[in-house]
User: Fold this.
Amino acid sequence: MQTEVALNAIVDAVVPGRSIGLGLGRRANAQITALTSLYSKAPGETLFVEGDEADSIYEIVRGMVRIHKLLPDGRRQITGFLSAGHLLGLAPEGAFVYTAEAITEVTLCRYKRAAFDRLIDEVPGFAKRLLAVASEELYRAQDQMLLLGRKSATEKVASFLLLMAGQQDDEEGEVEVPMTRSDIADYLGLTIETVSRTLSKLKQDGVIALPTPAHVEILAREQLDELAAGETVAAC
Amino acid sequence: MQTEVALNAIVDAVVPGRSIGLGLGRRANAQITALTSLYSKAPGETLFVEGDEADSIYEIVRGMVRIHKLLPDGRRQITGFLSAGHLLGLAPEGAFVYTAEAITEVTLCRYKRAAFDRLIDEVPGFAKRLLAVASEELYRAQDQMLLLGRKSATEKVASFLLLMAGQQDDEEGEVEVPMTRSDIADYLGLTIETVSRTLSKLKQDGVIALPTPAHVEILAREQLDELAAGETVAAC
DNA sequence: CGCAAACTTGATGTTGCTCAAGCTAGGTGG
DNA sequence: CCACCTAGCTTGAGCAACATCAAGTTTGCG
Assistant:
């Protein structure tokens, strides 16, 4: 997402060329980096749990994180897969409203909530920038509601594949799928069996190839686009 | 939502006691009211359409609005029912990302986008306040994803009734439902028949009463709470 | 090499959708 | 004032998409 040169030497050392500070100017960035700490999580590790005291805000520097909510009986809805540049924990003060877990090896930048709040007041443009980030998230959330409420299994899986493809700059149809079928199912409101079957059907129809379960190759991009958009009755 | 005394004489005249300006201080409010215009929409009228140029931001002063997104073949997902105090059109600049329509008679306050943007820069605390509003919306959206992806029809309808009840201060179990079964269905990712049947079943079970289709009486609040939360297998 | 986790595939079941018919209520014109 | 008309709602019967249950298969790792 961000491509400008990082101001933070620590970050630069770890992930060359990857900026933090949400695209703000030099001064703001310098202020922000003064109160960050950088650390890592292994795949499967929990960053924080829904209901925990939200004393920090996190920025993903590298890797992929899933966020989810649970029903009392264990049913899970994954509300997002977040990669580098995304913020975690911006929600209402007090407590986190979702659980966050690492899917891949993840590098995180942690901001203390209190210091972060102070920055919002003191650094011109910072709140505005955060507002843009939140609006963007809201837009994504509404698209996902349309998917969950009104798309068929095939349309959901097609949309997911295109989301993954778009998240990777890789335009050549090679898509990495770092999460399990269970994650995909809980993101799309399906079961793992339906996800697996739908992928098999797309493969059989020549729309995709599946060299390995975690590696999808898009063979017929246009057809996938149409499926994802829900254009025709043929989609069913 | 807002109960403080309005500073804007026009608003006061129309809707006594209802504030605008998003809970900011006197100075900010004075600045904001300088660039507002107030007007009304009849039930069924469109405020704006997905894709329209987003040159304004709206605050609902009175009444209820629905916002939705469409698939090319007409399938509709209602992403929210918004009442007084809510903002419309905050999403990414350029174009509206959803369509907004009046459900009841609605009074709106319109802010010019450019002026609104200037306020964000000039009025201290304004962007922060908007960020809180957007975060709150995001939280609601994630709850709705959980509902759409993982709840049964009964759980969805129960959740909806509680949402409506919560939106009205009326704690006595009397809930007004100003929208049609079609709106409810498109909000919950169901069909009108399933919504109707589910309401009938809840009535039959003594959980609610239905004096008229648009008027629900909650008879067994606890049972409805449990259903909405998805506590037990009995929910199915 | 063996084991466990993840994935795939098949058979059967159930929820919610589709199609269809009748009901209710509010508004309009004769 | 009443009858009609229409939009919205309810109810029923049959069906399809997706879930559930149940084996197998593959893969990665110790």
Summary: Chain A has two domains: 2-147, 151-228. The longest strand of chain A covers residues 56-62. The domain at 151-228 of chain A is CATH 1.10.10.10 (Arc Repressor Mutant, subunit A). The radius of gyration of chain A is 19 Å.
